[in-house]
Write a structure and sequence with these properties.
- This protein has helices at residues 13-37, 52-62, 66-70.
- With 75 residues, the chain is mainly alpha-helical.
- The protein has one domain.
- The N and C termini lie far apart (56 Å).
């Protein structure tokens, strides 16, 4: 049914580019939020993993931030 169609059996190259753009748009703000709260910016990559991203948001919302303890606000 999909034979000969450009989207048939392989991923369209533009799909990967689009996914990269979405990842960048999501990770950069998450990275900055993690840094400002006093956690490692690398936690921002968790925003790309379904369900884990919700856990990250809840963690950031309800955890005590190291930046609050040190008085450092990075911005």
């Amino acid at each position: 049914m999909m034979e000969g169609h450009m989207f048939g059996n392989t991923m369209w190259a533009g799909h990967w580019l689009w996914m990269l753009v979405i990842a960048i748009v999501a990770v950069i703000p998450a990275w900055r939020i993690c840094q400002r709260t006093g956690y490692s910016g690398w936690l921002g990559f968790l925003i790309l993993i379904p369900v884990i991203n919700l856990a990250l948001l809840y963690f950031l919302a309800f955890a005590e931030w190291p930046a609050d303890k040190t008085g450092d606000c990075n911005g």
